[in-house]
Amino acid sequence: MVSAAQSNLISAALAPTQIGQQIDAAVAVKTLNVQREQGNAVLKLLDTAGQAGPQPGDALVAKATGLGGLIDMTA
User: Fold this and answer.
1) What pTM, to 2 d.p., does this model score?
2) In this predicted model, what pLDDT tens digit does every residue of 11-21 receive, in sequence order?
3) How far apart are CA 39 and CA 32, in angstroms?
């Protein structure tokens, strides 16, 4: 059986390891959150880039480029 004094000594010996593990976990969470934010920013950038160009069926684009003039867009 472990006495109260022994239990306190064991807890004191394990404290630095537990603190180190808590710090490691906090750093990992922070790193993953930063990576998630960067991924969201890239997706937002890609969505914006996809919307910036000429859209299919745009009459002015068809007239200017000669492409898409024979496509029925009113189906």
Assistant:
1) 0.51
2) 888 888 889 99
3) 10
